[in-house]
Design a protein that fits this description.
By secondary structure, the chain is mainly α. The protein has 10 helices and no strands.
Protein backbone atom coordinates (compact mmCIF):
# COMPACT_ATOMS: atom_id res chain seq x y z
CA UNK A 1 0.00 0.00 0.00
CA UNK A 2 2.74 2.45 0.92
CA UNK A 3 4.97 1.46 -2.00
CA UNK A 4 2.24 2.35 -4.49
CA UNK A 5 2.26 5.94 -3.25
CA UNK A 6 5.98 6.24 -3.94
CA UNK A 7 5.67 4.65 -7.38
CA UNK A 8 2.65 6.70 -8.45
CA UNK A 9 4.12 9.95 -7.15
CA UNK A 10 7.50 9.26 -8.74
CA UNK A 11 6.11 8.57 -12.21
CA UNK A 12 3.87 11.65 -12.11
CA UNK A 13 6.68 13.88 -10.83
CA UNK A 14 9.20 12.80 -13.48
CA UNK A 15 6.68 13.40 -16.27
CA UNK A 16 5.77 16.83 -14.86
CA UNK A 17 9.40 17.82 -14.21
CA UNK A 18 10.64 16.97 -17.70
CA UNK A 19 7.70 18.60 -19.46
CA UNK A 20 8.18 21.94 -17.66
CA UNK A 21 12.00 21.94 -17.51
CA UNK A 22 12.53 24.81 -20.01
CA UNK A 23 10.29 27.10 -17.96
CA UNK A 24 12.18 26.15 -14.81
CA UNK A 25 15.48 26.96 -16.51
CA UNK A 26 14.21 30.41 -17.53
CA UNK A 27 13.06 30.98 -13.94
CA UNK A 28 16.54 30.15 -12.60
CA UNK A 29 18.21 32.53 -15.08
CA UNK A 30 15.81 35.32 -14.08
CA UNK A 31 16.41 34.75 -10.38
CA UNK A 32 20.14 35.28 -10.95
CA UNK A 33 19.68 38.57 -12.80
CA UNK A 34 21.19 41.51 -10.97
CA UNK A 35 23.34 39.32 -8.74
CA UNK A 36 26.53 40.92 -10.07
CA UNK A 37 27.40 44.12 -11.85
CA UNK A 38 28.41 42.06 -14.86
CA UNK A 39 24.92 40.63 -15.23
CA UNK A 40 22.99 41.61 -18.37
CA UNK A 41 20.03 44.02 -18.10
CA UNK A 42 16.98 42.58 -16.37
CA UNK A 43 14.46 41.28 -18.90
CA UNK A 44 11.30 39.22 -18.90
CA UNK A 45 10.83 35.48 -19.38
CA UNK A 46 10.20 35.62 -23.14
CA UNK A 47 13.33 37.71 -23.72
CA UNK A 48 15.36 35.42 -21.45
CA UNK A 49 14.14 32.36 -23.32
CA UNK A 50 14.85 33.96 -26.71
CA UNK A 51 18.35 34.94 -25.61
CA UNK A 52 19.09 31.41 -24.43
CA UNK A 53 18.03 30.00 -27.81
CA UNK A 54 20.00 32.64 -29.75
CA UNK A 55 23.20 32.36 -27.74
CA UNK A 56 23.20 28.69 -26.70
CA UNK A 57 20.82 26.92 -29.04
CA UNK A 58 17.43 25.27 -28.54
CA UNK A 59 18.92 22.28 -26.72
CA UNK A 60 20.12 24.68 -23.99
CA UNK A 61 16.50 24.92 -22.83
CA UNK A 62 16.98 21.39 -21.54
CA UNK A 63 20.30 22.03 -19.80
CA UNK A 64 20.30 20.02 -16.60
CA UNK A 65 17.34 17.83 -17.56
CA UNK A 66 19.23 14.73 -16.36
CA UNK A 67 19.46 16.40 -12.96
CA UNK A 68 15.74 17.13 -13.09
CA UNK A 69 15.02 13.43 -13.65
CA UNK A 70 17.27 12.45 -10.73
CA UNK A 71 15.83 15.21 -8.54
CA UNK A 72 12.26 14.11 -9.19
CA UNK A 73 13.26 10.48 -8.65
CA UNK A 74 14.78 11.27 -5.25
CA UNK A 75 12.93 14.34 -3.96
CA UNK A 76 9.44 14.07 -5.38
CA UNK A 77 9.13 10.32 -5.16
CA UNK A 78 10.02 10.54 -1.46
CA UNK A 79 7.74 13.46 -0.63
CA UNK A 80 4.78 12.11 -2.59
CA UNK A 81 5.14 8.66 -1.06
CA UNK A 82 5.46 9.90 2.51
CA UNK A 83 2.55 12.31 2.06
CA UNK A 84 0.43 9.44 0.76
CA UNK A 85 1.33 7.27 3.78
CA UNK A 86 0.50 10.06 6.23
CA UNK A 87 -2.69 10.86 4.33
CA UNK A 88 -3.88 7.26 4.65
CA UNK A 89 -2.92 7.19 8.32
CA UNK A 90 -4.50 10.54 9.27
CA UNK A 91 -7.68 10.39 7.18
CA UNK A 92 -10.85 10.00 9.24
CA UNK A 93 -12.25 6.52 8.36
CA UNK A 94 -15.85 7.68 8.81
CA UNK A 95 -15.71 10.84 6.67
CA UNK A 96 -12.83 9.78 4.37
CA UNK A 97 -11.46 13.30 4.86
CA UNK A 98 -8.20 14.52 6.38
CA UNK A 99 -8.53 17.91 8.12
CA UNK A 100 -6.59 20.79 6.51
CA UNK A 101 -4.19 21.23 9.46
CA UNK A 102 -3.20 17.57 9.13
CA UNK A 103 -2.80 17.97 5.36
CA UNK A 104 -0.42 20.86 5.96
CA UNK A 105 1.49 18.92 8.63
CA UNK A 106 1.82 15.93 6.32
CA UNK A 107 3.13 18.21 3.58
CA UNK A 108 5.69 19.83 5.86
CA UNK A 109 7.03 16.47 7.03
CA UNK A 110 7.07 14.91 3.56
CA UNK A 111 8.71 17.96 1.99
CA UNK A 112 11.49 18.12 4.57
CA UNK A 113 12.45 14.46 4.15
CA UNK A 114 12.21 14.58 0.36
CA UNK A 115 14.40 17.69 0.13
CA UNK A 116 17.10 16.21 2.35
CA UNK A 117 17.23 13.14 0.10
CA UNK A 118 17.21 15.09 -3.17
CA UNK A 119 19.48 18.06 -2.38
CA UNK A 120 22.55 16.82 -4.37
CA UNK A 121 20.44 16.48 -7.53
CA UNK A 122 18.77 19.84 -6.85
CA UNK A 123 22.17 21.51 -6.50
CA UNK A 124 23.42 19.92 -9.72
CA UNK A 125 20.27 21.00 -11.56
CA UNK A 126 20.61 24.65 -10.50
CA UNK A 127 24.26 24.79 -11.52
CA UNK A 128 23.65 23.11 -14.86
CA UNK A 129 20.75 25.44 -15.65
CA UNK A 130 22.74 28.54 -14.69
CA UNK A 131 26.00 27.59 -16.42
CA UNK A 132 25.16 29.07 -19.81
CA UNK A 133 24.83 32.60 -18.44
CA UNK A 134 28.50 32.65 -17.36
CA UNK A 135 31.45 33.66 -19.57
CA UNK A 136 32.88 30.61 -21.35
CA UNK A 137 36.02 30.62 -19.17
CA UNK A 138 33.98 30.49 -15.96
CA UNK A 139 31.54 27.75 -16.90
CA UNK A 140 31.59 24.47 -15.04
CA UNK A 141 30.57 22.51 -18.16
CA UNK A 142 29.11 19.53 -16.35
CA UNK A 143 28.29 16.83 -18.91
CA UNK A 144 25.56 15.19 -16.83
CA UNK A 145 24.14 15.06 -13.34
CA UNK A 146 26.52 12.19 -12.52
CA UNK A 147 29.49 14.27 -13.70
CA UNK A 148 28.24 17.27 -11.70
CA UNK A 149 27.87 15.34 -8.46
CA UNK A 150 31.20 13.54 -8.92
CA UNK A 151 33.11 16.77 -9.60
CA UNK A 152 31.46 18.66 -6.75
CA UNK A 153 32.36 15.82 -4.38
CA UNK A 154 35.95 15.73 -5.61
CA UNK A 155 36.59 19.46 -5.89
CA UNK A 156 34.49 20.86 -3.05
CA UNK A 157 34.02 17.89 -0.71
CA UNK A 158 31.09 15.57 -0.08
CA UNK A 159 29.54 18.13 2.24
CA UNK A 160 29.16 20.54 -0.68
CA UNK A 161 26.39 18.32 -2.08
CA UNK A 162 24.18 19.64 0.70
CA UNK A 163 25.05 23.30 0.15
CA UNK A 164 21.87 25.31 0.47
CA UNK A 165 20.10 22.31 2.01
CA UNK A 166 18.52 24.43 4.73
CA UNK A 167 16.83 26.54 2.07
CA UNK A 168 16.00 23.47 0.00
CA UNK A 169 14.30 21.87 2.99
CA UNK A 170 12.43 25.09 3.88
CA UNK A 171 11.29 25.56 0.29
CA UNK A 172 10.26 21.92 -0.06
CA UNK A 173 8.25 22.07 3.15
CA UNK A 174 6.42 25.18 1.93
CA UNK A 175 5.89 23.83 -1.60
CA UNK A 176 4.74 20.39 -0.51
CA UNK A 177 2.44 21.71 2.21
CA UNK A 178 0.91 24.35 -0.06
CA UNK A 179 0.84 22.24 -3.23
CA UNK A 180 -0.36 18.84 -2.01
CA UNK A 181 -2.55 20.12 0.81
CA UNK A 182 -4.08 22.79 -1.45
CA UNK A 183 -4.81 20.30 -4.22
CA UNK A 184 -6.56 17.90 -1.85
CA UNK A 185 -8.48 20.74 -0.21
CA UNK A 186 -9.57 22.36 -3.49
CA UNK A 187 -10.54 18.99 -4.95
CA UNK A 188 -12.58 18.05 -1.88
CA UNK A 189 -14.33 21.45 -1.90
CA UNK A 190 -15.23 21.19 -5.60
CA UNK A 191 -16.63 17.69 -5.13
CA UNK A 192 -18.39 18.59 -1.87
CA UNK A 193 -20.11 21.63 -3.44
CA UNK A 194 -21.10 19.59 -6.48
CA UNK A 195 -19.46 22.06 -8.87
CA UNK A 196 -18.00 19.21 -10.95
CA UNK A 197 -17.59 15.48 -10.73
CA UNK A 198 -14.39 13.62 -9.96
CA UNK A 199 -12.91 13.95 -13.44
CA UNK A 200 -10.40 15.86 -15.55
CA UNK A 201 -12.10 19.25 -15.05
CA UNK A 202 -11.88 18.99 -11.28
CA UNK A 203 -8.29 17.75 -11.40
CA UNK A 204 -7.16 20.62 -13.68
CA UNK A 205 -9.00 23.30 -11.69
CA UNK A 206 -7.69 22.10 -8.33
CA UNK A 207 -4.20 21.77 -9.81
CA UNK A 208 -4.05 25.33 -11.13
CA UNK A 209 -5.28 26.71 -7.81
CA UNK A 210 -2.70 24.64 -5.91
CA UNK A 211 0.06 25.74 -8.30
CA UNK A 212 -0.72 29.42 -7.70
CA UNK A 213 -0.67 28.99 -3.92
CA UNK A 214 2.64 27.10 -4.09
CA UNK A 215 4.24 29.75 -6.33
CA UNK A 216 3.30 32.66 -4.06
CA UNK A 217 4.49 30.87 -0.94
CA UNK A 218 7.75 29.49 -2.29
CA UNK A 219 9.20 32.13 -4.64
CA UNK A 220 11.20 34.17 -2.07
CA UNK A 221 12.79 31.03 -0.64
CA UNK A 222 13.44 29.75 -4.15
CA UNK A 223 15.35 32.91 -5.14
CA UNK A 224 17.65 32.64 -2.13
CA UNK A 225 18.12 28.89 -2.63
CA UNK A 226 19.07 29.40 -6.27
CA UNK A 227 21.67 32.06 -5.45
CA UNK A 228 23.25 30.13 -2.58
CA UNK A 229 23.47 26.96 -4.64
CA UNK A 230 24.89 28.74 -7.68
CA UNK A 231 27.56 30.79 -5.86
CA UNK A 232 31.12 30.04 -6.84
CA UNK A 233 33.48 29.57 -3.90
CA UNK A 234 37.14 30.09 -4.81
CA UNK A 235 39.84 28.50 -2.67
CA UNK A 236 41.21 30.90 -0.07
CA UNK A 237 38.43 33.44 -0.60
CA UNK A 238 35.29 34.14 1.37
CA UNK A 239 32.07 32.84 -0.14
CA UNK A 240 29.76 35.49 -1.65
CA UNK A 241 27.12 34.52 0.91
CA UNK A 242 27.68 33.22 4.44
CA UNK A 243 24.33 31.45 4.30
CA UNK A 244 20.67 31.84 3.40
CA UNK A 245 19.98 34.74 5.76
CA UNK A 246 23.08 36.61 4.59
CA UNK A 247 22.02 36.06 0.98
CA UNK A 248 18.51 37.35 1.70
CA UNK A 249 19.84 40.47 3.44
CA UNK A 250 22.36 41.25 0.69
CA UNK A 251 19.78 40.65 -2.03
CA UNK A 252 17.19 42.96 -0.45
CA UNK A 253 19.77 45.67 0.33
CA UNK A 254 21.22 45.64 -3.17
CA UNK A 255 18.08 45.07 -5.23
CA UNK A 256 15.08 45.83 -3.03
CA UNK A 257 12.43 43.55 -1.43
CA UNK A 258 10.80 42.70 -4.75
CA UNK A 259 14.01 40.97 -5.79
CA UNK A 260 12.68 38.05 -3.74
CA UNK A 261 9.96 37.69 -6.37
CA UNK A 262 12.31 37.65 -9.33
CA UNK A 263 11.29 34.94 -11.73
CA UNK A 264 7.73 34.92 -10.39
CA UNK A 265 6.15 34.94 -13.86
CA UNK A 266 8.05 31.83 -14.98
CA UNK A 267 7.55 30.38 -11.49
CA UNK A 268 3.77 30.63 -11.77
CA UNK A 269 4.00 29.71 -15.45
CA UNK A 270 5.84 26.55 -14.42
CA UNK A 271 3.95 25.78 -11.21
CA UNK A 272 0.62 25.92 -13.03
CA UNK A 273 1.47 23.44 -15.81
CA UNK A 274 3.75 21.41 -13.52
CA UNK A 275 1.03 20.98 -10.91
CA UNK A 276 -1.59 20.20 -13.54
CA UNK A 277 0.61 17.59 -15.25
CA UNK A 278 1.64 16.23 -11.85
CA UNK A 279 -1.84 15.66 -10.49
CA UNK A 280 -3.56 14.71 -13.75
CA UNK A 281 -0.82 12.14 -14.35
CA UNK A 282 -1.04 11.02 -10.72
CA UNK A 283 -4.80 10.49 -10.97
CA UNK A 284 -4.34 8.45 -14.16
CA UNK A 285 -1.52 6.39 -12.68
CA UNK A 286 -3.67 5.72 -9.61
CA UNK A 287 -6.42 4.38 -11.84
CA UNK A 288 -3.89 2.20 -13.64
CA UNK A 289 -2.49 0.79 -10.39
CA UNK A 290 -5.71 0.68 -8.38
CA UNK A 291 -5.88 -3.11 -8.48
CA UNK A 292 -2.22 -3.69 -7.56
Amino acid sequence: MGLKGFLEGGVASIVAGCSTHPIDLIKVRMQLQGESSASPPRVGPIAVGARIVQQEGVKALFSGVSATVLRQTLYSTTRMGIYDILKQKWTDPSTKIMPLPKKISAGLIAGAIGAAVGNPADLAMVRMQADGRLPAAQRRNYTSVVDAIARMSRQEGIGSLWRGSAMTVNRAMLVTASQLASYDQFKETILEKGVMGDGLGTHVTASFAAGFVAAVVSNPVDVIKTRVMNMKVDAGKAAPYAGALDCAIKTVRAEGPMALYKGFVPTISRQGPFTVVLFVTLEQVRKLFKDL
